[in-house]
């Protein structure tokens, strides 16, 4: 089997996966490996890619997650996405006219941006189709009983 065939078989998380999202844990922070709990299965995923703000046209920097604004009426929000999350159309103040972040790799660069994305980040869910980061599925396990999560983590660690 040639390399192109192997590459073509790689599977990545899609928006459809996140409609069944329950929770996420970090398995290996430095390697960006996570275990994601969905209604129907657990997936071990690895983040791949780099931030290419020109390619995505700053997709993640053009709105604000408004779900934490509990005191406002629903009329305040600009829109609701397919995951039931509310968003405000508000561009980040740190973007220059050309789209580059003014704080990139400088003191004061927001921790949220430094860690973006991770599988539980609803901002990522929203921009997944445009974002240059992807989460490759390394391992899938169907839910079959109690203790399976711990068993899966143990098996993954033994393989490393």
Query: Would you identify the regions where 5 or more consecutive residues have pLDDT less than 50?
Result: none
* Total beta strands: 7
Tell me the count of domains: 1
User: What is the percent of helical residues?
Assistant: 10-25%
Give the structure's gist in a few sentences.
The protein has six helices and seven strands; from the N terminus they run ααβββαβββααβα.
Describe this structure in words.
The chain has 160 residues and is an alpha+beta fold. The protein has one domain. Helices cover 23% and strands 24% of the residues. The protein is built from six helices and seven strands, in the order ααβββαβββααβα. It has a four-stranded antiparallel sheet with strand order 1-2-3-7, with helices on one face.
Question: How does the SSE layout of this entry go?
Answer:
Elements: H1 3-8, H2 15-18, E1 21-28, E2 33-38, E3 41-48, H3 53-56, E4 64-65, E5 79-80, E6 86-88, H4 111-115, H5 122-127, E7 134-142, H6 148-159
Describe this protein with a few key phrases.
4-stranded antiparallel β-sheet; 160 residues; alpha+beta; 3-stranded antiparallel β-sheet; single chain; 7 strands; 23% helix; globular
């Amino acid at each position: 089997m040639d390399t192109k065939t192997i590459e073509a078989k790689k599977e990545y998380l899609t928006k459809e996966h996140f409609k069944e999202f329950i929770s996420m844990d970090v398995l290996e922070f430095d390697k960006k490996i996570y275990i994601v709990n969905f209604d129907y299965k657990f997936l071990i995923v690895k983040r791949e890619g780099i931030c290419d703000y020109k390619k995505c046209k700053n997709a993640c920097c053009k709105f604000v997650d408004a779900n934490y604004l509990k005191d406002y009426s629903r009329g305040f929000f600009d829109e609701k996405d397919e995951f039931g999350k509310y968003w405000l159309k508000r561009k980040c103040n740190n973007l220059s006219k050309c789209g580059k972040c003014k704080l990139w790799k400088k003191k004061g660069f927001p921790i949220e941006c430094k860690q973006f994305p991770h599988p539980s980040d609803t901002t990522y869910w929203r921009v997944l189709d445009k974002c240059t980061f992807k989460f490759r599925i390394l391992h899938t396990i169907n839910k079959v009983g109690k203790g399976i999560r711990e068993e899966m983590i143990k098996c993954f660690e033994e393989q490393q």
